[in-house]
Amino acid sequence: MDISLLPEEVFIEIALYLDLDDLLACCSVSAGWRDAINQNKIWFRQCLRRSALKFNKFELIDTPNRVQPGFHFPAPTCDTLSDLCPWRKRFMQEAHLSRNWRYGRYISRRIMRLQEPSLIECDENLVLVPNVEMRDFTVFSIEGEPREIDRVPYSLSHVSSDFFKLCQNT
Asked: Where would I find the F-box domain in this sequence (predicted)?
């Protein structure tokens, strides 16, 4: 079928209902089909379906690989193929991370020893651990090697995402 007969908007709307296996099958039909499927809107939807993507924001994951096999974008094998759209690249990164996690390929680090079960709050790059004995929270940066960056007294009545914004500004 010549997909150029369909308006692009209609084709994209149809593709939004396809599952991953069907999308990948469409990509392997021809270069034209691959380009038609290579749309941010389509791959953004796949990212939302398969991952805990926060805030619908796009950022390629730039944390260095610490486990093997590391992730690398595939090198183009043909000069006539267009580059992958940003959301498809993000989807590939998320799928790689998920596969590593599923097969136990990750590094586990103990941030601190807890005396009793505690509620640990997390944000993208910060972990907040309550310390009952000291009556404070310990704030750890988990960007790169985990490290303590601050201690905050228990004077806060509620811990919220706004707290993390305050910590990042210090």
From this structure: 1-46
pLDDT in tens, 71-96: 888 877 777 788 889 889 888 888 88
Distance CA 78, CA 140 (A): 45
pLDDT tens-digit readout, 2-14: 677 888 889 999 9
Give the separation between CA 112 and CA 133, rounded to whole angstroms.
Answer: 14
Alpha helices per DSSP H over the chain: 8-15, 20-27, 31-37, 40-50, 86-102, 161-169
CB-based burial, 107-142: b 16+ in 10 Å, e otherwise? eeeeeeeeeeeeeebebeebbbbbeeeeebbbbbbe
Burial class (CB in 10 A: 0-12, 13-18, 19+), 149: middle
Tokens linked to 72: 């690398």
Nearest to 121 by CA among 81, 167, 85: 167
Structural domains in the chain, CATH included, are 3-102 (1.20.1280), 121-169 (no CATH)
